[in-house]
């Protein structure tokens, strides 16, 4: 209860604050959420620290999923890497491991992401440009050559052909006599966000979700340490969403996968502990921290009370964060180093389990060795020199952070209700609900930048007219020629009859409700290609033109 002195002090502050000038830029978050000039206990009406905040490692996990967090173990430091051929990316992996990276993160080129081979006419000019080209099991063998994937955690950012690429990865590990039960890592395998934001889908939503659940089911039994989905808000945010939209749409996607796995008879505690999340780390430090805290609470509530999970590990939302690519600027690109550092700080204060820091030149080209080293050093300075790892959840109990966290929870719940009103996830996708919401948010943000109500250093403020260009990494067309030639050789050497038999089996199983992974493992060993397998699935599922639906 406030004393007379407290009341007098508050009244004095209110008068002084009311008389003070305000900056030209309105005090809002990146997502245009108005921010009060001061937060006090009154901002947390009804807040109970014991139940709403709790302790780290305990329900509702607002303060993190581990009791001691970074005091015991630092987050996994990953740098997203992939370009050119499998051999070139393998060399970059080894370079990063030598520099102190603690986990691998794999970027695939656009043809692979779309389920196309390097020799497909539609791949022309894109092979190895924005990620590594992978068409067969041989590419995966080369990608991880001389790297003990039984010891190193591996992340793979791929969605539409995720089940196919995972079959290649498992077949490669088996050929190297690496026990699947030792494999640790994550495959993104989140197709729903492709329909919301990124457009790298091949089949209609429902069969695509079936493939996601096939992988969840198979790995729950055979690859128990593998994170089978990285439910991704990152790309939703990159498309222009607000922080709350990123939070709500990501969790809604996760809930849909849970629903579908339960519908096929799986027990929630058998698969939920291996669902992971992938969030953006944008510029507004406190908005991002509140987003991560709200995500943990909302997920824990749903898994415990709606889905009836009994294991605490099923309630825990574990997440990887990547600094915001959409925030990077091609003007004064070295300033991106500072942006990335603050974004990384937000991810760590928010309790991430692993982190990728973007390189300063990524808005211009794939990162150079110099730039990617600086990005990794950003994490290392944060971990070893800033003191943020010394105590768990240092911002817990902050009036501002807790108020913003509660607000984001409430607004996310409102979105959950709106999605249900649309008829659920698939119906909302078909109606274009998510795309409209994201497009509207992106328009509002750009309008604020254009009006200089939001300042971007080097873009609409503090402009440098004479800039010296950075040296950037260049991928020439030699990679494409080599990949096409390599693929031609594999097709000439393989057993054509075995390939036809395996592709027929893929189509047969796809037409049933059986799990596709065993058939895909056989197809991988026969050197069936990504494009051939995806084409066989398309014969059963059909192809999806999202533009025709909206």
Description:
- With 550 residues, the chain is an alpha/beta fold.
- Helix content is 49%, strand content 7%.
- It contains 22 helices and 9 strands.
- A 9-stranded parallel β-sheet has the order 5-4-3-2-1-9-8-7-6.
- α3 links the parallel β1 and β2 (103-107).
- α5 crosses α6.
- The longest helix is centred in the C-terminal third of the chain and has 23 residues, at 399-421.
- It is globular.
- It starts with a helix and ends in a 9-residue tail after the last helix.
- The mean pLDDT is 95.
Give the gist of this structure.
The chain has 550 residues and is α/β, with parallel strands linked by helices. It contains 22 helices and nine strands.
For the biggest β-sheet, the strand order reads 5-4-3-2-1-9-8-7-6
Largest sheet data: 9 strands, parallel
Number of H- or I-type helical stretches? 22
Looking at how many chains there are and whether they match, the oligomeric state comes to single chain
Radius of gyration: 24 Å
Question: Could you list some keywords that capture this structure?
Answer:
49% helix; 550 residues; 7% strand; alpha/beta; 22 helices
Layout of helices and strands:
Blueprint: H1 4-19, H2 49-53, E1 76-81, H3 86-98, E2 103-107, H4 110-113, H5 137-143, E3 154-157, H6 162-175, E4 185-187, H7 192-198, H8 205-222, E5 226-227, E6 229-232, H9 234-238, H10 243-263, H11 268-271, E7 275-281, H12 285-306, H13 312-315, E8 319-323, H14 336-349, E9 354-356, H15 369-385, H16 399-421, H17 425-430, H18 433-450, H19 478-493, H20 496-510, H21 517-525, H22 530-541
Parallel strand pairs: 1-2, 1-9, 2-3, 3-4, 4-5, 6-7, 7-8, 8-9
Helix pairs in contact: 3-5, 5-6, 6-21, 10-12, 10-16, 12-14, 12-16, 14-15, 20-21, 20-22
């Amino acid at each position: 209860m406030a004393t007379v002195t407290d009341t007098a002090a508050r009244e004095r502050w209110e008068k002084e604050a009311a008389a003070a000038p305000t900056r030209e830029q309105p005090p809002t978050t990146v997502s245009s959420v108005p921010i009060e000039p001061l937060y006090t206990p009154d901002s947390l009406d009804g807040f109970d620290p014991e139940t709403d905040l709790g302790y780290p490692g305990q329900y509702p996990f607002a303060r993190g999923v581990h009791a001691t967090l970074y005091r015991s173990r630092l987050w996994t430091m990953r740098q997203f890497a992939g370009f050119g051929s499998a051999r070139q990316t393998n060399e970059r992996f080894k370079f990063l491991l030598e520099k102190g990276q603690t986990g691998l993160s794999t970027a695939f080129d656009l043809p692979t992401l779309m389920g196309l081979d390097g020799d497909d006419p539609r791949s022309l000019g894109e092979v190895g440009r924005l990620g590594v080209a992978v068409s067969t099991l041989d590419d995966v063998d080369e990608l991880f050559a001389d790297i003990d994937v039984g010891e190193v955690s591996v992340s793979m950012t791929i969605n539409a052909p995720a089940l196919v690429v995972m079959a290649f990865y498992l077949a490669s590990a088996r050929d190297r006599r690496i026990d699947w039960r030792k494999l640790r890592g994550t495959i993104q395998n989140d197709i729903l966000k492709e329909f919301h934001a990124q457009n790298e889908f091949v089949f209609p939503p429902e069969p695509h979700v079936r493939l996601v659940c096939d992988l969840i089911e198979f790995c729950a039994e055979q690859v128990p340490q593998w994170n089978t989905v990285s439910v991704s808000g990152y790309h939703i945010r990159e498309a222009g969403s607000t922080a709350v939209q990123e939070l709500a749409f990501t969790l809604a996607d996760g809930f849909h996968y849970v629903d579908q796995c339960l519908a096929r008879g799986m027990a929630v505690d058998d698969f939920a502990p291996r669902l992971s999340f992938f969030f953006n780390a944008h510029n507004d430090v406190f908005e991002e921290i509140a987003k991560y805290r709200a995500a943990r609470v909302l997920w824990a509530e749903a898994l415990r009370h709606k889905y009836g999970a009994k294991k605490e590990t099923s309630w825990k939302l574990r997440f990887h964060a990547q600094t915001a690519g959409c925030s990077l600027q091609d003007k004064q690109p070295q300033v991106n180093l500072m942006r990335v550092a603050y974004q990384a700080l937000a991810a760590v204060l928010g309790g991430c389990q692993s982190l990728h820091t973007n390189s300063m030149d990524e808005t211009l080209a794939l990162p150079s060795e110099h730039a990617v080293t600086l990005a990794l050093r950003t994490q290392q300075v944060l971990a070893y020199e800033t003191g943020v790892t010394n105590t768990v959840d240092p911002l817990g109990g902050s009036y501002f952070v807790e108020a913003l966290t509660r607000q984001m929870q409430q607004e996310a719940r409102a979105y959950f209700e709106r999605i249900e009103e649309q008829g659920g996830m698939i119906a909302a996708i078909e109606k274009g609900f998510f795309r409209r919401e994201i497009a509207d948010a992106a328009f509002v943000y750009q309008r604020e930048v254009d009006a200089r109500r939001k300042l971007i250093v080097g873009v609409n403020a503090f402009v440098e007219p004479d800039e010296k260009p950075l040296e950037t990494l260049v991928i020439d067309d030699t990679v494409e020629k080599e990949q096409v030639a390599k693929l031609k050789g594999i097709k000439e050497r393989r057993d054509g009859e075995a390939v036809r038999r395996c592709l027929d089996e893929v189509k047969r199983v796809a037409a049933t409700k059986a799990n596709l992974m065993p058939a895909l493992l056989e197809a991988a060993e026969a050197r069936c290609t990504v494009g051939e397998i995806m084409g066989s699935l398309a014969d059963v599922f059909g192809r999806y033109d999202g533009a025709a639906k909206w």
